[in-house]
Amino acid sequence: MDPDTKGQNGQGGGGTGGGTKGKEAPSLAARVKAGDLPPVAERLPKAPRVIEPLDQIGTYGGTWRTVDASTDPSWPWMTVCNDHLITWDPTWSEIIPNAAESFEVNGGGSEYVFKLREGMKWSDGEPFTADDLVFWYEHIFSNKKITPVPQSQLTINGKPLVVEKQDDVTVAFTYAQPNALFLENLAIHGPPFRLLPRHYLEQFHAEFTSGLPDNWHETFLERIDELNNIELPVLTGWIPKNPHGDGDRQVWERNPYYWKVDPDGSQLPYLDSVVFTFFQDQGPLILQAANGDVDLYQRAEVTTPKNRPVLARGQETGDYKLVDVNDPNHNTMGLCLNLTHENPAKRRMYRNKDFRIGLSHAINRQQIIDLVHLEQGQPWQTAPRPELPFYEAEEMGKQYTEFDLALARQHLEKAGVGEVDGQGRRLGPDGRPIIITVLNQSRYPLMVDALEFIKPTWEEVGIELRIDNVAPELVSTRLEANQYDCTPDSGELGYLDMVADPRWFFATGGSSYAPLWSRWYEGGSPQEEPPEAMQRQARIFREQVLGNSDREAQYEGMRQIIDIAKEEFWTMGISLPPKTYAVVSNRLKNVPGDDKMWLSFKCPYPAVTNVSQYYIDEG
Fold first, then answer.
1. Which of 24, 170, 372, 383 has an alpha carbon 20 to 30 Å from 504's alpha carbon atom?
2. Which CATH number fits domain 333-576: 1.10.10.10, 3.10.105.10, 3.40.50.300, 3.90.930.12?
3. What does the pLDDT look like over 144-162, one tens digit per residue?
4. What does the alpha-carbon distance between residue 417 and residue 361 come to, in Å, rounded to a whole number?
5. Residue 174 CB partners (closer than 8 Å, separation 6+)
């Protein structure tokens, strides 16, 4: 669309009645008049992306005030840093063009051709073209110093993708075999590669600039960090004005070359700025939200059932509302015995399905729901969410969730651990009392609470549970070394996100229950060949999901994979997470209402709701 063909008078039809809106923000119009910027028509691409406002066309100005529990980069990535070639639509139904004007999928997912927007520019006004993508491929992805190991999403059977320029605005990404999940892996929070400016980065790259030190690649990696290198040209709606780790707040101001417009042809974003205020603990953060000083915030660590009463009480005085947000996670906690344990006796015991069923029946899930999760949720295994459009999950989610100690003992005896010593402790294959040490990340205090309720009920059936609460980094190290009995993990990836990342249903990358089987699939070492059932799952995934771009065929493959997981019962769950919520100020408009957003990093909300069309109405 030509932005000068609509809305010649700049009227924001359906807007707030604020008079003439104009074709650009007043602050940018002033810079044009002063000669500091070219006219808006020259700053926009030939075919900008047109964003339909959710409720009404907005007006320019104002600041989106938000917070974060720390200087963790996740929330900025979920809000202001998520413009890639493609994106999910706001309903998480289909992948649509974004920075790319269009795309084609050929060869069943072996070739992806992107047509860029002619005349599109970086935030410093330099052209964004196919050369930027080729630079990434030839000099970042293919450079062993910068990328020693290619990202798994960008390879198929160990063979990396190939990127070729067809013309100034057309680029082809080609795989040796179909990789039908490529687009989904680009549309996530933290994609496998980002759009980076060749014209700026060449000066820090040894292939283009002589005299750089031997460790030039370390500086280069720092230079491509858009959260901390405020000199890096970007394609996002706002530009950081200070580094993310600098102080207790970060300010982002509008990008004068942003490539999206509203239906009037007026350049987006509407908001002048976004300000992140960082807190080291939740107390002051919750207080700031309850005082009405937060316009939009949704993070699972803060928007918990425990904090809801405090935030609910402040809605009237703080002039905000709590908006229900769907949780794509399938469980409040997945309990993962190490099925590839380095101790052969423990490995055989943990792999026995009856042993796992016995432990599952010895968990009082309703007690945990009532006391830990404040009566929110229902007993549920590590099964898909009921809302999943392609699978009936009720039977799988409810299996073995009955709290029945007699039934638990029966299954444990069937598993070959029927002998009990004089103190009532059940003896393992080695003749010693069975002790299961659970390695828990200290950032998951609710999981510790849940484990404390599991401990006495497992003890009643003769199993001792010990809790080892450590830093997340140590958990990762221990899992990688395969030196643990059991670990809990957040039950992520229970909705459409599982198609691209089915780790809970068979051991792919990041598996917490079978690291050696996971490496067999990923090609790492040391590894161990998994049982035939999991090998069958891997074949189905490669052939019918990863190797087939037809969505219905992918769903059929996932149904088969889930059915096998249901039968094998690799892991245990506790409860289905309830809806979570977002804090939304009444002055921030065009924000989706109840049940319109998800708390997902695979489909990063609220970014996919087109945050550039949010606007402030103080009236």
1. 372
2. 3.10.105.10
3. 999 999 998 999 988 999 9
4. 16
5. 110, 111, 112, 161, 162, 163, 164
